[in-house]
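Fold these two proteins, one after the other.
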Amino acid sequence: MQIKRILDDREVFLGDTVFDAPGRYYALLEHSGGDLVVAREDCHPIRFRPKQLGCYVVHANRTERGLAQERLRDYWEE
């Protein structure tokens, strides 16, 4: 699973700095259950949705079988 910034499409790694909408900065700790777990220097870990931090998640399962399953799932959800 990859996490990328929306602004410049660069990959984000653990420990990298990410920003929320008001401009507060956080260090990325982990990706857990669809959320990004981040922390400030003086605070405990906080969970954010990737979109709140200007990021998106790229799923690693991009094989033909994984893509076929994804298309099938999308078909039945519509």
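Now the second one:
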Amino acid sequence: MGTSIGVGGLASGVQWRDLVDSIISAERARNIGRLETQVSDADKRKVQWQAFEGLVRKLDDAASALRSGTAFRTFGAVASPTAGGRQLLTATASSAATPGAFSVEVLELARAGKVSGAVVSDPAAALGRAGSFTVAGQAITISATDSLNDVRDRINALNTGANATRVSASVLTSSAGASRLILSADQAGSAGVALQDGGEGVLRDLGFLDTRSRQVSSATTAIAAALGVTMPPPSTVRVGDQVISVDLTTDSLASIAARIRAAGAQAEVQSETVGGQTQYRLSVGAMVSATADPNSAATIAALGLAEGGRASVKQVVGPAGTLTDAGGTTATGSTLLTSLRRDGAAMGLTVGDTITIGGTRGDGSAVSTSLVIGASDTVDTLLARINDAASGFGGGARPASASIGPDGRIRLEDGTGGDSRLALALAVTPAAGGPATQPFGASTTLTTGRARDLVRGSDAQVRVDGVLVTRASNTIGDALQGVSLSLQQADPGNPVTLAVTRDDEASVQAVRDFVKAYNDVVSFMNGQQVEGQPLAFDPTLRRIIGTFTQALRTEIPGAGDVARGTLVGMTLQRNGQLQLDEGRFRTAMAGNLGGIQALFGGAGIGGAMRAATQAATRFGDGTIATQVSSIDTANGRARDRIQTLQQRLDERRERLVLQFSSMEQSLSRLQAQGNQLQAAILGFSQQR
């Protein structure tokens, strides 16, 4: 319906638009205002019902704790410290616990494994190693162009998703030109970092695993004699990229290790005590494989060389030069010092010269000694002075041992595997005087000492009342029923006492919470019993509160001195509030805990209160839900009616505006005609 555009009252002199507003406003107040007031009042009642529902739900929660009995099955667990004040473990107890005292001895903590690879000079440079290996059962393939950083990234790429390896890789740079790959298990346990090398020996070449021989009774006896069996003919084997010769009829583990080291690979003889007897193995830090030599595979089989473990690597240092005698023959221990040549050049050592021996042991302790060269002194004489237990490297808390290899190089080997500060310096002061020189050459690190197992993955081990318990985690929740142990420190031989006791204070607090929740509900109702409040004197509200009060009066037949709430200290006051006499309640609980549990259980106050609260708050057909739904339904109809009436008022305004606009137009035309007639009469009279 269109609306005429005009200025009200220009023709009639009547402000009819104000008149229209007054008419519409009066009709709106009469027809719509009453409905809007009804909707507003109903919304306020809805808000209060919802607030009341929140309080009832808290009462329901409090009653549920009492009904289930968990409120009366609360326990505390406290572990005593050791005599030295160390706290070995903490503990928590659930409702399933049993009171008692237990002896707990923490033998070992669970640890996440961490392993280290070999040191490389540049983590971004191609390693020149190709092949496959597995980490936690998942295969990783690398190419010869991959760097240490690339290997790290390939390993980390598998530590995602549902089948994550749970092994993280990182590159650690300990100093300039010294980087290594570190693999860390994300979880504690003896499984640690599970590695399996492929046929190409990539993990061994990367330094994570070694290649070990079978055990023999002597490190220096020929292997054939040590094992007492016939050996294959002399042959060659491949160690990493190098080929070495092996004759098991004459070679010992020590000579083979020296030959491997002379070829630039890491090798050492390790001792093990088995059944009270010392046995020896050859440990090689690279892949050992057969060459084209027809006896190569048989030689490897005879030695029993196969993928081994993660033994620590001992640091080896020594002068870089190769020593020979005057005739060019590779130097041995019996070679005279005065006849030594280095890399083919005469060293010029003479009788009376002083060889100063210095450096540090693996633990950093300093070594300083010397040898004045005599006419009969040999390389063995020098080695004996280096190895001297009183002033040389053979003493101290971390001794080292020097030897000369089949390649004519002097090597000083740390006696302990792992990170090492072993260093050697040999200087010569001429007998004739003059500055000290280094005819042996500058000493370098030939093998960097390191631990492959930086942290050995381990399971937690505890003894509970003498029974050994092993778990992969330091949190043990299934050794003692209802008790969770959190291990902090290991202290074998020093058990501590774990006391599991009933927490009566928690039980009293649960009843306090119930009393408070009930009183909050009553306070809400009391607050509404005032004229003008949304739920003032609401009969449904009073009826709900009545069901709660009735639940408090529930009795347990035959329960004697705890048959009803008033007997254990719960009484209703004149204002409807519930009061708890805690002293009386504690006495009742101490004397008859089972009766208290029954009083507040499913057949008692807790069960009755839950039934009442559930009837009030149940979704869909609960008393409160019904009230809210009724309000929503009534308000929906009222809002629809308001919309209809408003539309009618808008249409009436349109009609009134059109009527008054039409009247103005008619009056305006009459006024115009009157003005024309008056002008015509005036003109006619002037003509006369």
